[in-house]
Design a protein that fits this description.
With 657 residues, the protein is mostly helical. The chain has helices spanning 6-14, 42-54, 68-79, 82-85, 91-118, 123-128, 132-140, 152-165, 172-195, 207-224, 226-229, 241-250, 258-280, 286-306, 337-367, 373-388, 399-407, 414-430, 439-450, 456-465, 467-482, 485-505, 550-571, 591-606, 618-626, 629-633, 642-655; strands spanning 147-149, 396-398, 509-514, 521-523, 536-541, 578-582, 610-614, 638-639. The chain is built from 27 helices and eight strands.
Amino acid sequence: MVHHTPDETTADEAGITMQSPTYNLSQPPPVYKVGYPPQKNFTREFRDTLRETFFHDNPLRQYKDQSVWRKFKMGLQFLFPVFEWGKTYNLSKFRGDLIAGLTIASLCIPQDIGYSKLANLDPQYGLYSSFIPPLIYAAMGSSRDIAIGPVAVVSLLLGSLLQNEVDHSTSKEEYLRLAFTATFFAGITQATLGFLRLGFLIEFLSHAAIVGFMGGAAITIALQQLKYVLGIKNFTRKTDIVSVMESVWRSVHHGWNWQTVVIGIAFLAFLLLTKYIGKKNKKFFWVPAIAPITSVILATFFVYITRADKQGVQIVTHITKGINPSSIHKIYFTGPFVAKGFKIGVVCGMIGLTEAVAIGRTFAAMKDYQLDGNKEMVALGTMNIVGSMTSCYIATGSFSRSAVNFMAGCQTPVSNVVMSMVVLLTVLVITPLFYYTPNAILGSIIISAVIGLVDYEAAVLIWKVDKMDFIACMGAFFGVVFASVEIGLLIAVAISFAKILLQVTRPRIVLLGNLPGTTLYRNTDQYPEARHVSGVVIVRVDSAIYFSNSNYVRERIVRWLSDEEDKAKADGLPKINFLIVEMSPVIDIDTSGIHALEDLYKSLQKREIQLILSNPGSIVIEKLHSSKLTEHIGRDHIFLTVADAARFCTSKSMQEP
């Protein structure tokens, strides 16, 4: 009887044959040639490229092999995620959403009144924008944690751009109509980007540029609040730090109101203290969350009982009571203001989109769930389109509120619904109670809210990691602080594009050497112990070769070759006979790149140096083959690895007399 070991039995049952390598260790390892992929027709190639560009996540995969009714339900759930998570909603989740919603409502009400002033709008429009848009987002948004409403940066940007077109103090109605028009086109822009799956366009604003822009905007917003905190009536309309500080200094002797200063500074200190408490101990997250509404109540009561408004303390006065009125008739669909509204809407919509998607992805990563960026864009766009028709201005995801929402234990977007209902109660019943609310407390609330946008730790990290990114960060920051929000945004975009162009037009080309005792060839700067191969120069191109960089690539390779030839001559080493170009990182090549390689080949032929290519990718080798360049270079001069190419060059050198 034959007994099998457990391993043998398992192998037999599985039908697996275990074999040792068949090559002879005494023989050189086999040399494989570069494979040529099967040629695709134009239609298939275009279709594959289109699919990879716009549908890389294969969103239709889940609809495969489903019935028509099932596809309809899945499509409905895709557009309205509420139908998906609503099926599992229960009382336990509602408890978390209720607490979170009430908490962010206490934070959003005073912020909304303050942010509307940044946009040069009446206070009720800030409250309106925290009522309708959150309801739309709750049905269509896929983030469980984003809290929707007006935000400081977008409010300031909107107010600044609108003021450049219409003076809000002399043409109030035209200003308001243009604000609604800009909000409408911001929504159209956001929804269109989502439907056409063009969300990658917002990635052109780099993280470093956003850090700088947000920090500069935060400083600008805080400086703008000095007119409320110090009680200055005649304040500059410019936003740059020089103009603001000149305006503050001119008013120091007779323009400041000491009662206003006491209110503003005292409550600002209180708000900053509560933020510090909440930061030090996460269990007290609710302390900074309720501090703004507490400050408003206390400051309003103080002004009312002392009648400080009679002593020059500026107050909110009247806030229009009632639910959002329709504003569809106020949106410009014809006339000269349409183009202006479109321009402003696109800029503000893109900034709001960038902020919201970044916030959503941050909290999605913390809770380990996926966020569909294109779906978010559709949701944000739809809520702003509807908002523009219901007296709202641009709303997006607020980082401060979203952080509070997250820490308060929100479970679903229902927390936005709870917040919205509290805001509705406010505009229907409570708005008259804000009559004596001092502007100073709103300024203090905004200052305390935007301080967190100055992320100096991120700036320090950017400096350590990438100096070019730091230039983009500081360029955006100083552009906002010393010029304007628009100039800062323009600088941020310009530097981001400049960095992309610099990387594309000046790719890294490095010299490779052999690591002793291995068949590995690595960058000699990174690995100083890497040895040069006698009579051979090996370079690696770390980029695709396009029309924008093809001449540089050719010239830089020739320069490497000339430098190595000079070194070989000076050290009495053998003449350079071979140039190996490692092409693994070259993901693509166009006709200009092929011409550059052809010119390089001809130049080397005149110098009696053989061009060798190593490991070109499938797309690259296909194009080289179609252009007949592989025939000029010779298929026997194209290798799968640098080691194979170097071995070939060494053997050829040994054969020469």
